[in-house]
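ok so i was messing around last nite and threw this chain in just to see what happens. nothing serious, just curious
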Amino acid sequence: MEGIASFVPLIAIIAIMYFLMIRPQQQQRKQHQAMIEALRRGDQVITSGGFIGKITKVKDDDELEVEIADGVKVRLVRNTILRVVNKTEPASE
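result:
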């Protein structure tokens, strides 16, 4: 019984670490992944490099074309998008 009692604090520390650090990071990663998958043409985004631009083309599953200035378009990997500033509404049919 004494051996099990000595492991209780260790198990409590592991549980606290899970709920305070690991689980929130997993949820944040899931939210970011959902945001990345929902990107479409016309969305205004901020990249990990700090550029603000508008998505002009979704090339394939992993690549976007973003206009960062008038006539200046760059190709980006989807995962480099940090945040969506303005979301466009889907076209009504």
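not much to say yet. The chain has a mean pLDDT of 89.
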